[in-house]
Amino acid sequence: MTTRLYYDDSYRTSFDATVTAIGEIGGRPAVQLDRTFFYPTSGGQPHDTGTLAGADVIDVLVQDETLWHVLAASTALKPGQAVTGSIDWQRRYDHMQQHSGQHLLSQVFYRLFGFETVSVHFGATESTLDLDAAVIEQNQLAAAEQEVNRLAYAALPIITYTVTQEALATVPLRRPPKVTSDVRIVEITAYDFSACGGTHVHTTAEIAPIKIVRQERRRGQTRLTFLCGLRATRDYAEKHRLLVEAANLFSTDTTAVPALVQRSLDQVRELQRQVDTLTEQLITYEIHELLAAAPMDGDLRVVQKVYTDRSVDALKQAAGLLRSQPRTLALLGTQSGGKLTLLFGRSDDVALHAGNLLRDTLKAFGGNGGGRPELAQGGGVDPAQAAAMLDYAHNLATTQTKE
User: Fold this and answer.
1) Order of strands across the sheet that contains 127-131
2) Residue 179, pLDDT above cutoff 90
3) What is the dihedral angle through the alpha carbons of 331, 336, 340, 342, rounded to the nearest 10 degrees?
4) Is beta strand 375-379 parallel, antiparallel or unpaired with respect to 14-25?
5) How far apart are CA 37 and CA 42, in angstroms?
6) What's the Cα-to-Cα distance from 29 to each of 17, 69, 72, 150, 215, rounded to whole Å?
7) What number is the average pLDDT over the span 257-286?
8) Who is most buried in 4, 7, 333, 359, counting CB within 10 A?
């Protein structure tokens, strides 16, 4: 059984120990020690990393109540050998800040609004807290964030101790423990009491600031994403940098950015509306020219056109206008974006399946596609073959309509 030294000292980064067993987990060498400061993945908190006898520790886990240190590569370690372990302090301290911050945040939501914590997860860049609340209003989020930071800056001591099952009833736990033996308590002095085996900071001042960055509803619950301590500080610095860059683009102060962005969006929408109107007018004009120049093959008018700079949406608009004409087959293509897209459409009085026509044409040139009887879209062929493909489709369509 490995003695878990991190229970009593989360700040220790190096230690000496003795190898008690050698094994293998997931195809990698694993080492068991008589004592360790390495924290294993547990309770939503990720494992520590670091080195053991100079070898990289990439995972720490518990299997059948045995704590294993998984190494990146094989070593010559043997049972009975003395080793020195070193903890990645930056990773450890980050996890300590997030975990202690979660305890405080959970208690704040419970005390202010009665929201119970359902589950937690500590990720590499963000942490999440699931609460048993279908809806959390923005004013509640603001109130909770203000209160949790007030308590954090009050530098409340965070202490740990173990109580027996008999004495457990005297501890006002926020949630009942999952173990039936002696229970380790993490107490934010006189404010929060949690049964927890994780690593924690000494005072709440070390977890400040605390920032709730977003919320999402999940099956009758609410998931909050939050950042504590150095994570929140880095997040603020990055967002401030981006805001200053945006302000510089407008040559203005950061406080004016939201209004200027909104004004720019309104201008873009108006310009896009004008572009759409002009595009529609241009397409309408082009359609009249195409119809006038299109040859009649029997009683069928076939319109062929390959564009080099037309969007697929504009192509669909042109096809729609052509389909409104009697006895008309539209064979259109665009090479926009370096690839060829074909769009075949026919008016309702033409007994021809546009989807089958496109499929057969593309198949003949190594492509694929199809669609509805009245309108079909496809591609996946060399743009240089566009004109030949439309000629092929034209001949195929006139043959089919004459049969």
Assistant:
1) 117-122, 127-131, 221-228, 210-218
2) no
3) -30
4) unpaired
5) 14
6) 18, 8, 7, 46, 41
7) 92
8) 333
How many angstroms separate the CA atoms of 228 and 95, rounded?
10
Of 167, 171, 11, give the one whose Cα is nearest residue 92.
11
| C-alpha span between 326 and 301 (Å, rounded) | 9
Is 103 buried (19+), middle (13-18) or exposed (0-12) by CB count in 10 A? buried
CA distance 128 to 134: 16
CA 294, CA 302: separation in Å to the nearest integer?
6
Q: Which long-range contacts (CB under 8 A, 24 or more apart) does 131-140 make?
A: 131/221, 131/222, 131/223, 131/224, 132/221, 133/221, 133/222, 134/217, 134/220, 134/221, 134/222, 135/217, 135/222, 136/215, 136/222, 136/224, 140/112, 140/113
Contacts of residue 193, Cβ cutoff 8 Å, sequence gap at least 6: 171, 172, 173, 174, 185, 186, 187
Amino acid, res. 189: T
Asked whether the beta carbons of 62 and 42 are under 8 A apart, the reply is yes
Residue type, 184: R
- For the stretch 87-143, pLDDT in tens is 999 999 999 999 999 999 999 999 999 999 999 999 999 999 999 999 999 999 999
Scan for tokens 């950061």, then name that residue: 254
How far apart, in whole angstroms, are the C-alpha atoms of residue 201 and residue 86? Answer: 19
Query: What's the pTM?
Result: 0.75
State CA 346 to chain mean position distance. Answer: 43
369 has pLDDT over 70:
yes
pLDDT at residue number 157: 98
Structure tokens at 41: 């993945």
Are 384 and 366 spatial neighbours (Cβ–Cβ below 8 Å)? Answer: no
